[in-house]
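Milestone M4 deliverable, item 7.
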Amino acid sequence: MVIIMFVDIAKIKIKAGDGGNGAVSFHREKYVASGGPDGGDGGKGGDVVFKVDDNLATLADFRYKRKYKAPNGQPGSGGRRNGKKGEDLVILVPRGTVIREVQSGKIMADMSDDETFIAAKGGRGGWGNPHFATPTRQTPRFAKNGTPGEEWEVSLELKLLADVGLIGFPNVGKSTFISVVSQAKPIIADYHFTTLTPVLGVVSLGEGSSFVMADIPGLIEGASDGVGLGHEFLRHVERCRLLVHVIDVAGSEGRDPIEDFEKINEELKKFNPELAKREQIVVGNKIDLAEDEQIERLQNYFKEHGYAFYTMCAPIVEGTKEIIDAVAAKLAALPAIKKYEKEEIPAEFFEKNKSGKFTVTVEDDVYFVEADWLLKILQRTDLDDYESLQYFQRVLHSSGIIDALVEKGIQEGDTVSIYDLEFDYVP
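Output delivered:
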Protein backbone atom coordinates (compact mmCIF):
# COMPACT_ATOMS: atom_id res chain seq x y z
CA MET A 1 0.00 0.00 0.00
CA VAL A 2 1.33 3.45 -0.91
CA ILE A 3 0.65 6.08 1.73
CA ILE A 4 0.49 9.66 0.45
CA MET A 5 1.76 12.16 3.01
CA PHE A 6 -0.70 14.93 3.72
CA VAL A 7 0.74 17.78 5.78
CA ASP A 8 -1.51 20.64 6.79
CA ILE A 9 0.53 22.42 9.46
CA ALA A 10 4.13 23.58 9.46
CA LYS A 11 6.41 25.98 11.30
CA ILE A 12 9.10 27.97 9.48
CA LYS A 13 11.45 30.91 10.02
CA ILE A 14 11.45 33.75 7.52
CA LYS A 15 13.95 36.60 7.20
CA ALA A 16 13.70 39.53 4.84
CA GLY A 17 16.87 40.91 3.33
CA ASP A 18 18.84 43.58 5.17
CA GLY A 19 19.15 46.98 3.59
CA GLY A 20 22.52 47.70 2.01
CA ASN A 21 24.83 50.13 3.81
CA GLY A 22 25.30 53.68 2.62
CA ALA A 23 28.74 54.55 1.26
CA VAL A 24 31.37 57.03 2.44
CA SER A 25 32.95 58.57 -0.62
CA PHE A 26 34.21 61.93 -1.88
CA HIS A 27 34.19 63.25 -5.39
CA ARG A 28 37.50 62.88 -7.14
CA GLU A 29 38.13 64.87 -10.28
CA LYS A 30 41.16 66.24 -12.02
CA TYR A 31 41.84 69.89 -11.16
CA VAL A 32 39.28 69.72 -8.29
CA ALA A 33 41.16 69.98 -5.03
CA SER A 34 38.49 68.69 -2.70
CA GLY A 35 35.25 67.30 -4.04
CA GLY A 36 32.20 67.00 -1.86
CA PRO A 37 30.69 63.80 -0.46
CA ASP A 38 29.24 61.48 -3.12
CA GLY A 39 28.56 58.15 -1.38
CA GLY A 40 25.48 56.36 -2.72
CA ASP A 41 22.60 54.96 -0.68
CA GLY A 42 22.25 51.24 0.01
CA GLY A 43 19.57 49.21 -1.75
CA LYS A 44 16.42 47.96 0.00
CA GLY A 45 16.45 44.35 1.18
CA GLY A 46 14.17 41.84 -0.51
CA ASP A 47 10.73 41.12 0.99
CA VAL A 48 9.42 37.67 1.92
CA VAL A 49 6.13 37.29 0.06
CA PHE A 50 3.49 34.56 0.33
CA LYS A 51 1.44 33.68 -2.75
CA VAL A 52 -1.35 31.15 -3.38
CA ASP A 53 -0.63 28.30 -5.77
CA ASP A 54 -3.70 26.22 -6.65
CA ASN A 55 -1.43 23.39 -7.80
CA LEU A 56 -0.48 22.78 -4.16
CA ALA A 57 -2.74 20.74 -1.90
CA THR A 58 -0.55 20.26 1.21
CA LEU A 59 2.25 21.92 3.16
CA ALA A 60 4.51 18.90 2.71
CA ASP A 61 7.35 20.93 1.13
CA PHE A 62 7.85 22.78 4.42
CA ARG A 63 8.79 19.52 6.23
CA TYR A 64 12.19 19.59 4.56
CA LYS A 65 13.01 23.29 4.44
CA ARG A 66 12.39 25.37 7.55
CA LYS A 67 14.39 28.59 6.95
CA TYR A 68 13.70 31.12 4.21
CA LYS A 69 15.77 34.27 3.64
CA ALA A 70 15.42 36.97 1.02
CA PRO A 71 18.58 38.53 -0.51
CA ASN A 72 20.11 41.63 1.05
CA GLY A 73 20.22 44.99 -0.70
CA GLN A 74 23.57 45.94 -2.17
CA PRO A 75 25.69 48.68 -0.57
CA GLY A 76 26.02 52.10 -2.17
CA SER A 77 29.23 53.20 -3.82
CA GLY A 78 31.04 56.35 -4.89
CA GLY A 79 29.73 58.67 -7.54
CA ARG A 80 26.32 58.66 -5.85
CA ARG A 81 25.67 55.16 -7.18
CA ASN A 82 22.92 53.56 -5.15
CA GLY A 83 22.99 49.87 -4.31
CA LYS A 84 20.73 47.42 -6.10
CA LYS A 85 17.53 46.27 -4.37
CA GLY A 86 17.47 42.69 -3.10
CA GLU A 87 15.13 40.33 -4.95
CA ASP A 88 11.87 39.42 -3.23
CA LEU A 89 11.54 35.82 -2.03
CA VAL A 90 8.16 34.36 -3.05
CA ILE A 91 6.86 31.40 -1.01
CA LEU A 92 4.01 29.40 -2.57
CA VAL A 93 1.28 27.96 -0.33
CA PRO A 94 -2.04 26.16 -0.91
CA ARG A 95 -5.20 28.25 -0.94
CA GLY A 96 -6.71 28.43 2.55
CA THR A 97 -3.40 28.63 4.42
CA VAL A 98 -3.56 30.73 7.61
CA ILE A 99 -0.28 32.39 8.65
CA ARG A 100 0.35 33.12 12.35
CA GLU A 101 3.24 34.74 14.20
CA VAL A 102 4.35 32.01 16.59
CA GLN A 103 5.25 33.95 19.75
CA SER A 104 2.14 36.13 19.89
CA GLY A 105 -0.21 33.66 18.17
CA LYS A 106 -1.64 36.53 16.10
CA ILE A 107 -2.99 35.93 12.60
CA MET A 108 -0.84 37.69 10.01
CA ALA A 109 -2.79 36.65 6.91
CA ASP A 110 -5.42 34.29 5.54
CA MET A 111 -4.31 33.15 2.08
CA SER A 112 -7.81 32.52 0.75
CA ASP A 113 -7.80 34.81 -2.27
CA ASP A 114 -5.32 35.75 -4.98
CA GLU A 115 -3.71 38.69 -3.17
CA THR A 116 -0.05 38.29 -2.24
CA PHE A 117 1.04 38.96 1.35
CA ILE A 118 4.29 40.61 2.37
CA ALA A 119 5.08 38.72 5.57
CA ALA A 120 8.52 40.20 6.22
CA LYS A 121 9.56 43.58 4.85
CA GLY A 122 13.07 44.10 3.61
CA GLY A 123 15.24 46.56 5.49
CA ARG A 124 15.64 50.08 4.13
CA GLY A 125 18.87 51.01 2.48
CA GLY A 126 21.30 53.11 4.49
CA TRP A 127 22.15 56.68 3.59
CA GLY A 128 25.36 57.68 1.90
CA ASN A 129 27.46 60.43 3.45
CA PRO A 130 25.93 63.28 1.33
CA HIS A 131 22.84 63.07 3.57
CA PHE A 132 24.94 64.15 6.56
CA ALA A 133 26.54 67.20 4.97
CA THR A 134 25.69 70.49 6.71
CA PRO A 135 27.15 74.01 6.60
CA THR A 136 29.28 73.07 9.60
CA ARG A 137 29.95 69.46 8.55
CA GLN A 138 31.01 69.69 4.91
CA THR A 139 33.02 66.46 4.76
CA PRO A 140 31.07 63.83 6.73
CA ARG A 141 33.20 60.72 7.02
CA PHE A 142 30.38 58.43 8.01
CA ALA A 143 27.26 56.95 6.48
CA LYS A 144 24.23 55.09 7.78
CA ASN A 145 23.92 51.34 7.73
CA GLY A 146 20.90 49.71 6.21
CA THR A 147 18.19 48.54 8.58
CA PRO A 148 17.73 44.80 9.26
CA GLY A 149 15.00 42.97 7.39
CA GLU A 150 12.04 41.78 9.42
CA GLU A 151 12.42 38.33 10.90
CA TRP A 152 9.59 36.07 12.08
CA GLU A 153 8.86 32.55 13.10
CA VAL A 154 5.49 31.71 11.57
CA SER A 155 3.12 28.76 11.60
CA LEU A 156 1.31 27.74 8.44
CA GLU A 157 -2.03 26.05 8.93
CA LEU A 158 -4.08 24.79 6.01
CA LYS A 159 -7.83 25.10 6.55
CA LEU A 160 -9.72 23.86 3.51
CA LEU A 161 -12.04 26.25 1.70
CA ALA A 162 -15.27 24.32 1.33
CA ASP A 163 -18.96 25.17 1.63
CA VAL A 164 -19.88 21.74 2.97
CA GLY A 165 -17.96 19.36 5.20
CA LEU A 166 -18.77 15.65 5.26
CA ILE A 167 -18.19 14.28 8.75
CA GLY A 168 -18.78 10.97 10.48
CA PHE A 169 -17.09 7.78 11.67
CA PRO A 170 -14.84 5.80 9.31
CA ASN A 171 -16.52 3.53 6.77
CA VAL A 172 -19.97 5.16 6.90
CA GLY A 173 -19.84 5.99 3.18
CA LYS A 174 -18.69 9.62 2.97
CA SER A 175 -16.12 8.92 0.27
CA THR A 176 -18.61 6.98 -1.82
CA PHE A 177 -21.14 9.81 -1.48
CA ILE A 178 -18.75 12.56 -2.61
CA SER A 179 -17.52 10.39 -5.50
CA VAL A 180 -21.05 9.94 -6.92
CA VAL A 181 -22.20 13.57 -6.52
CA SER A 182 -18.96 15.17 -7.79
CA GLN A 183 -15.85 14.32 -9.78
CA ALA A 184 -13.77 13.82 -6.63
CA LYS A 185 -11.72 10.63 -6.43
CA PRO A 186 -10.87 9.90 -2.78
CA ILE A 187 -7.87 7.70 -2.04
CA ILE A 188 -9.01 4.85 0.19
CA ALA A 189 -6.85 2.83 2.56
CA ASP A 190 -7.70 -0.29 4.51
CA TYR A 191 -7.29 0.89 8.08
CA HIS A 192 -9.19 2.82 10.72
CA PHE A 193 -8.84 6.13 8.94
CA THR A 194 -10.08 5.13 5.55
CA THR A 195 -9.68 8.28 3.47
CA LEU A 196 -6.08 9.35 3.84
CA THR A 197 -6.51 13.01 2.96
CA PRO A 198 -9.31 15.57 2.88
CA VAL A 199 -10.81 15.54 -0.60
CA LEU A 200 -12.52 18.49 -2.29
CA GLY A 201 -15.28 17.91 -4.81
CA VAL A 202 -17.34 20.42 -6.82
CA VAL A 203 -21.04 19.57 -6.84
CA SER A 204 -22.75 21.01 -9.92
CA LEU A 205 -26.35 22.22 -9.61
CA GLY A 206 -26.71 23.11 -13.29
CA GLU A 207 -26.77 26.51 -15.03
CA GLY A 208 -23.36 27.46 -13.69
CA SER A 209 -24.35 27.00 -10.04
CA SER A 210 -22.25 24.78 -7.78
CA PHE A 211 -20.77 24.36 -4.31
CA VAL A 212 -17.60 22.80 -2.89
CA MET A 213 -17.86 19.75 -0.67
CA ALA A 214 -15.00 18.40 1.46
CA ASP A 215 -14.74 14.77 2.46
CA ILE A 216 -13.18 15.04 5.92
CA PRO A 217 -11.44 11.75 6.79
CA GLY A 218 -13.38 9.65 9.26
CA LEU A 219 -13.28 10.95 12.80
CA ILE A 220 -13.20 8.74 15.88
CA GLU A 221 -13.77 9.20 19.58
CA GLY A 222 -10.84 11.13 21.01
CA ALA A 223 -10.09 12.95 17.73
CA SER A 224 -10.11 16.34 19.48
CA ASP A 225 -7.33 15.06 21.75
CA GLY A 226 -5.25 13.98 18.79
CA VAL A 227 -6.27 10.32 18.77
CA GLY A 228 -5.66 8.82 15.35
CA LEU A 229 -5.35 11.67 12.89
CA GLY A 230 -8.03 13.78 14.54
CA HIS A 231 -6.17 17.06 14.99
CA GLU A 232 -4.83 16.87 11.45
CA PHE A 233 -8.34 16.81 10.02
CA LEU A 234 -10.65 18.61 12.44
CA ARG A 235 -9.21 21.99 11.46
CA HIS A 236 -10.61 21.49 7.97
CA VAL A 237 -14.15 21.61 9.31
CA GLU A 238 -13.72 25.13 10.72
CA ARG A 239 -14.44 27.04 7.51
CA CYS A 240 -17.37 24.89 6.34
CA ARG A 241 -20.67 26.73 6.19
CA LEU A 242 -22.70 23.54 6.57
CA LEU A 243 -21.90 20.08 7.95
CA VAL A 244 -23.38 16.93 6.45
CA HIS A 245 -23.15 14.27 9.13
CA VAL A 246 -23.16 10.78 7.61
CA ILE A 247 -24.13 7.79 9.77
CA ASP A 248 -24.47 4.06 9.10
CA VAL A 249 -28.18 3.42 9.66
CA ALA A 250 -27.65 -0.34 9.71
CA GLY A 251 -24.90 -0.27 12.32
CA SER A 252 -23.07 -2.69 10.05
CA GLU A 253 -19.81 -2.42 12.02
CA GLY A 254 -21.47 -3.16 15.35
CA ARG A 255 -21.83 0.50 16.46
CA ASP A 256 -25.00 2.37 17.36
CA PRO A 257 -25.47 5.21 14.80
CA ILE A 258 -26.99 7.51 17.45
CA GLU A 259 -23.98 6.99 19.71
CA ASP A 260 -21.69 7.65 16.71
CA PHE A 261 -23.55 10.90 16.01
CA GLU A 262 -23.29 12.09 19.61
CA LYS A 263 -19.60 11.15 19.92
CA ILE A 264 -18.60 13.03 16.77
CA ASN A 265 -20.50 16.14 17.86
CA GLU A 266 -18.78 15.96 21.23
CA GLU A 267 -15.39 15.85 19.46
CA LEU A 268 -16.35 18.91 17.38
CA LYS A 269 -17.33 20.75 20.56
CA LYS A 270 -14.08 19.85 22.34
CA PHE A 271 -11.96 20.98 19.38
CA ASN A 272 -13.81 24.25 18.82
CA PRO A 273 -17.08 25.11 20.65
CA GLU A 274 -18.21 27.10 17.61
CA LEU A 275 -18.32 23.91 15.55
CA ALA A 276 -21.02 22.48 17.81
CA LYS A 277 -23.27 25.38 16.72
CA ARG A 278 -22.62 24.86 13.00
CA GLU A 279 -25.69 23.99 10.93
CA GLN A 280 -25.95 20.23 10.29
CA ILE A 281 -27.90 17.91 8.00
CA VAL A 282 -27.91 14.24 9.01
CA VAL A 283 -27.69 11.59 6.30
CA GLY A 284 -28.33 7.92 7.01
CA ASN A 285 -26.41 5.71 4.57
CA LYS A 286 -26.57 1.95 3.88
CA ILE A 287 -30.38 1.77 3.93
CA ASP A 288 -30.09 -1.40 1.85
CA LEU A 289 -28.67 -3.16 4.93
CA ALA A 290 -31.09 -1.69 7.50
CA GLU A 291 -34.45 -2.84 8.86
CA ASP A 292 -37.45 -0.49 8.72
CA GLU A 293 -37.46 -0.35 12.53
CA GLN A 294 -33.85 0.89 12.58
CA ILE A 295 -34.62 3.72 10.14
CA GLU A 296 -37.82 4.68 11.99
CA ARG A 297 -35.89 4.88 15.30
CA LEU A 298 -33.39 7.30 13.74
CA GLN A 299 -36.10 9.40 12.10
CA ASN A 300 -37.80 9.86 15.46
CA TYR A 301 -34.54 10.69 17.26
CA PHE A 302 -33.39 13.38 14.82
CA LYS A 303 -36.86 14.89 14.49
CA GLU A 304 -36.99 15.16 18.28
CA HIS A 305 -33.58 16.87 18.34
CA GLY A 306 -34.38 19.30 15.52
CA TYR A 307 -32.16 17.89 12.74
CA ALA A 308 -33.17 17.41 9.12
CA PHE A 309 -32.71 13.70 8.39
CA TYR A 310 -32.30 12.06 4.97
CA THR A 311 -31.55 8.50 3.89
CA MET A 312 -29.56 7.13 0.97
CA CYS A 313 -27.74 4.20 -0.54
CA ALA A 314 -24.71 5.98 -1.95
CA PRO A 315 -23.31 3.23 -4.25
CA ILE A 316 -26.52 3.13 -6.32
CA VAL A 317 -27.21 6.89 -5.99
CA GLU A 318 -30.51 6.32 -4.20
CA GLY A 319 -31.62 9.43 -2.29
CA THR A 320 -28.56 11.51 -3.21
CA LYS A 321 -30.41 14.06 -5.36
CA GLU A 322 -32.78 14.94 -2.51
CA ILE A 323 -29.80 15.44 -0.21
CA ILE A 324 -27.98 17.71 -2.67
CA ASP A 325 -31.15 19.77 -3.16
CA ALA A 326 -31.52 20.15 0.62
CA VAL A 327 -27.85 21.16 0.96
CA ALA A 328 -28.19 23.77 -1.78
CA ALA A 329 -31.29 25.24 -0.12
CA LYS A 330 -29.49 25.47 3.24
CA LEU A 331 -26.40 27.11 1.71
CA ALA A 332 -28.52 29.79 0.05
CA ALA A 333 -29.45 31.11 3.50
CA LEU A 334 -26.01 30.82 5.16
CA PRO A 335 -23.18 33.40 5.24
CA ALA A 336 -20.09 33.08 3.02
CA ILE A 337 -17.09 30.90 3.86
CA LYS A 338 -15.24 32.26 6.88
CA LYS A 339 -12.13 34.33 6.25
CA TYR A 340 -9.79 35.01 9.16
CA GLU A 341 -9.02 38.66 9.78
CA LYS A 342 -5.52 39.98 10.28
CA GLU A 343 -4.61 40.65 13.92
CA GLU A 344 -2.18 43.44 14.77
CA ILE A 345 0.82 42.61 16.93
CA PRO A 346 1.02 45.45 19.48
CA ALA A 347 4.30 47.25 20.08
CA GLU A 348 4.00 46.31 23.76
CA PHE A 349 4.51 42.66 22.81
CA PHE A 350 8.03 43.35 21.53
CA GLU A 351 8.90 45.42 24.58
CA LYS A 352 7.84 42.50 26.79
CA ASN A 353 9.96 40.10 24.74
CA LYS A 354 12.96 42.37 24.11
CA SER A 355 16.44 41.00 24.59
CA GLY A 356 17.71 44.23 26.17
CA LYS A 357 20.67 44.28 23.77
CA PHE A 358 21.45 47.45 21.83
CA THR A 359 24.44 49.36 20.48
CA VAL A 360 25.26 53.07 20.58
CA THR A 361 27.92 54.49 18.26
CA VAL A 362 29.00 58.13 17.79
CA GLU A 363 30.13 59.85 14.56
CA ASP A 364 30.62 63.65 14.45
CA ASP A 365 28.13 64.27 17.28
CA VAL A 366 25.52 61.97 15.70
CA TYR A 367 24.50 59.14 18.07
CA PHE A 368 23.40 55.96 16.27
CA VAL A 369 21.21 53.48 18.23
CA GLU A 370 20.59 49.99 16.88
CA ALA A 371 18.58 47.05 18.28
CA ASP A 372 16.49 44.51 16.38
CA TRP A 373 13.73 44.49 19.01
CA LEU A 374 13.62 48.30 19.07
CA LEU A 375 13.14 48.41 15.28
CA LYS A 376 10.00 46.27 15.59
CA ILE A 377 8.62 48.65 18.24
CA LEU A 378 9.50 51.68 16.12
CA GLN A 379 7.74 50.19 13.08
CA ARG A 380 4.54 49.95 15.14
CA THR A 381 4.78 53.40 16.71
CA ASP A 382 2.74 56.27 15.30
CA LEU A 383 5.11 59.19 15.83
CA ASP A 384 2.34 61.65 14.96
CA ASP A 385 0.26 60.38 17.88
CA TYR A 386 1.18 61.96 21.24
CA GLU A 387 0.42 58.89 23.37
CA SER A 388 2.25 56.58 20.98
CA LEU A 389 5.26 58.88 20.97
CA GLN A 390 5.21 59.07 24.78
CA TYR A 391 5.18 55.26 24.90
CA PHE A 392 8.25 55.08 22.65
CA GLN A 393 10.07 57.58 24.85
CA ARG A 394 9.29 55.46 27.91
CA VAL A 395 10.78 52.45 26.12
CA LEU A 396 14.01 54.41 25.50
CA HIS A 397 14.23 55.20 29.22
CA SER A 398 13.22 51.79 30.58
CA SER A 399 15.58 49.90 28.28
CA GLY A 400 18.60 51.93 29.42
CA ILE A 401 19.18 53.53 26.01
CA ILE A 402 18.95 57.10 27.35
CA ASP A 403 21.42 56.25 30.14
CA ALA A 404 23.79 54.79 27.55
CA LEU A 405 23.57 57.97 25.46
CA VAL A 406 24.45 60.07 28.51
CA GLU A 407 27.42 57.79 29.25
CA LYS A 408 28.62 58.33 25.68
CA GLY A 409 28.65 62.09 26.36
CA ILE A 410 25.57 63.27 24.50
CA GLN A 411 24.77 66.96 24.86
CA GLU A 412 21.61 68.97 24.37
CA GLY A 413 21.00 69.53 20.67
CA ASP A 414 23.06 66.54 19.49
CA THR A 415 21.37 64.31 16.91
CA VAL A 416 20.05 60.84 17.85
CA SER A 417 19.53 58.47 14.90
CA ILE A 418 17.42 55.33 15.46
CA TYR A 419 17.05 53.72 12.04
CA ASP A 420 14.63 56.02 10.16
CA LEU A 421 13.98 58.25 13.17
CA GLU A 422 16.17 61.27 13.88
CA PHE A 423 15.68 63.84 16.63
CA ASP A 424 17.62 66.38 18.67
CA TYR A 425 18.43 65.26 22.19
CA VAL A 426 16.67 67.24 24.93
CA PRO A 427 17.57 66.18 28.51
